[in-house]
Amino acid sequence: MPTVPSSPALAAAHQALYRRWRAQRFDQIVGQTAVVETLRNGVRLGRLAHGFLFVGPRGTGKTSMARILAKAVNCPNVADGEPCDRCPSCDAIREGRALDVVEMDAASNNKVDDMRELLPRVYTAPADLRRKVFIIDEVQRIKEGWDVLLKTLEEPPDDVFFIFCTTNPSQIRPAVVSRLQRFTFRPLTVAEISGKLERILADDGRTAEPAAVRLVAELAAGGMRDAESMLDQLLSSAAETITADGVRELLGFADSGAVEAFVDALVRGDALAGIAVIDRLETEGRDLVAFADQVVARLRAIVVARLGGSAGEPDLPPAALAELARRVAGLDATRSTAGGFRFQLELLLLRGLPTTAPSFTPLRPAPPPPSDVPAPARAPARRRPAPEPAASPEAVPVPMSGDALERLRRGWRELVGHVSANPANRPLIEACRPVEVRDGIVILGFPEDQSFLRDIAERKKRVLEDAVRHVLGADYGVRCIATNVAALEPLPDEAADTLELAQRVFGGDLMDVAEIS
């Protein structure tokens, strides 16, 4: 029967990588230079506050910094504000044996009773160390319990320090924040994460392609702990050298060629090509949700490049590319729909390119009449049709032709009534107008100064598509855009309503143009 190795080095190998490589001194913290210098100077000069609030994304070093600070205020061998990490106090804190360093997770200990149980420990003298340190993580989860701690935070015992860590400071009471010194931890850069990953690889005697290291650093999104967890998983594989393809394979990410092919299909409106990419990804066991994130990242990179003046494909305005990225990012992986997330991607392909403006140019306003023309009478007049002057090419609107559009315009009042069966939808449908019907898509325009209505309509597309089917008797998709609704040609019902209103106001005495002149 094999024996369990007792070597400390072998035992340490069974620890998670992020625990083995957790920073133990200020000079081992990656990034966060301003925070490190301020805290180290506070320790060196003996000018530390009694309460701290560490704010920042997960995996950026908040809890590690809290433990190092706990060492620094208890270490008897501090040199230039740096704990020695060798004395019994430092060893006890590093190994989690120090009774006077209390760590709590407020995600599960956030009730009033939890805070009340904490108070006796606050007012009890330290058992082994010089100072007591209370480190509370995810402190934004505390709600009612603050009432118990507020007075203690304002005037704690001299030998007590509080260190609160949070990813969302907006949920913490201002009265609490005002009693603490706040330090902000920024997301780490790709270069900073890559540098530490390379040190870990060198220490373990493993090799990796630079592209693989960079890919892990990018996927970590600013968090060192996530990067170390991914590298830990990669180091457990049998491969001697970690490659970029191996990273994608192990983590379920698609290769760059698949991302480029899908973006190209999305931009060109080639649904079949896009579906072929999805077929291949599913065959290879790739994560489609992660793939959607990759597509968003690629579209964002293209937008940034285009804004910076770089040419290249796809040759679309940055606004259209950004709208595509917004649509991909808006897919909901939690929706339990028939076909799952894949079907959402396919529908995205079928929608085609976003339309940011109607495919016509609004008519220019009519010029004012010459000064020698008499002013019109006060009553409205029914004007005879007059030949229109020739318009310049840019002023001629693209006609909104098509039988489907005309039928939709004639049945618009019926469509409004169908949508308004739910009264909450009536303001939404009354504000919009049909713009165009193209390639099986009905384009609806919403006022530019009320773009929020378009956003609401995007979430209620199913209701709008049902109403369109009710009027046109066929299935159409719906696309919602912001446009100059006033420039659209009036609906038939609107023209009739205008004439009826004029007749009610002026008693039906409408004059001809000849009678006025």
Description:
- The protein has 517 residues and is of the alpha/beta class.
- The chain folds into 4 domains: 17-184, P-loop containing nucleotide triphosphate hydrolases (Rossmann fold), CATH 3.40.50.300; 190-251, Orthogonal Bundle (Helicase, Ruva Protein, domain 3), CATH 1.10.8; 256-351; 403-494, GMP Synthetase, Chain A, domain 3 (2-Layer Sandwich), CATH 3.30.300.180.
- It is 47% helix and 11% strand.
- The protein has 24 helices and 12 strands.
- The protein has helices spanning 8-12, 17-20, 33-45, 62-72, 88-94, 112-122, 146-154, 174-177, 190-204, 210-219, 224-235, 244-251, 256-268, 271-283, 288-307, 318-329, 340-351, 403-410, 412-419, 426-431, 451-459, 461-472, 492-506, 513-516, and strands at residues 51-55, 101-105, 132-137, 160-166, 181-184, 207-208, 241-242, 381-382, 433-438, 441-447, 477-483, 511-512.
- The strands form 4 sheets. A 5-stranded parallel β-sheet has the order 2-3-4-1-5, covered by helices on one side.
- Strand 2 (101-105), helix 6 and strand 3 (132-137) form a beta-alpha-beta unit.
- Helix 6 runs parallel beside helix 7 and helix 19 (412-419) packs across helix 22.
- The longest helix has 20 residues, at 288-307.
- It is globular and about 85 Å long.
- The N and C termini lie far apart (115 Å).
